[in-house]
Amino acid sequence: MGTGLSCNGTDAGAEHGRREPSQRPSSAALPAGILQDRLIAIGASTGGTEAIREVLCELPAEVPGIVIAQHMPEAFTASFAQRLDSLTRLTVIESKGGERILPGHAYLAPGHSHLLVRRSGGAYFTELSQAAPVNRHRPSVDVLFASVATAARGHAIGVILTGMGKDGAKGLLEMRQTGAWNIGQDQASCVVYGMPREAAQIGALQEVAPLSAIAGRILARLKG
Fold first, then answer.
1. Active-site option among 85, 142, 167, 186
2. Catalytic (active site) residue 95
3. Tens of pLDDT, residues 173-223
4. Which of 45, 47, 86, 117 could form a disulfide bond with 71, CB atoms 3.0-4.6 angstroms apart?
5. Catalytic residue flag (residue 85)
6. 32-223 is a CATH 3.40.50.2300 domain
7. Catalytic-residue membership of 167
């Protein structure tokens, strides 16, 4: 489900390859412990492919591992991950389950399974589940966020982006209750202001920001 767009929103032909860094907040000052111990979890639905692309394009390679649940059909998640990998500084893959979550890497839930995170021996790992849909979705953002709440607790950052419905709100609240810091996309920049609104209404968010500011706020939080 690649969009054919570059990080700047222009056509990205095969000759462009991975995007070069531009002027933006740097993570160079992040100590190795932060890169290994922290975890970023992102959830989105309607309009989310472009929103995720914009956030990831604004992040440098030196960031903690990222896990992503985007509502999309099974046939498109692998190509979406490949597209993100070609456009960003990060290594982006469709999760197969069992991967050790590494800094500078992003793991996308496949369209046929829930993506979960577990912690073992001081490291984070991906897991896949074909349990029943949650909020009518598999992958479900709530399932991902709930697992992050358990595995990473106060070491996590939660991000909820544009999307219809309420998937992710409950899991994000669980993250906040276990010490995570959460941010949601604002109404003006959402294609559909459903999921972020639901999260805000139940007190799951510490901050709301326009899409263009979310990556910078993540980096500021990691440094803070």
1. 167
2. no
3. 999 999 999 999 999 999 999 999 999 999 999 999 999 999 999 999 999
4. 45
5. no
6. no
7. yes
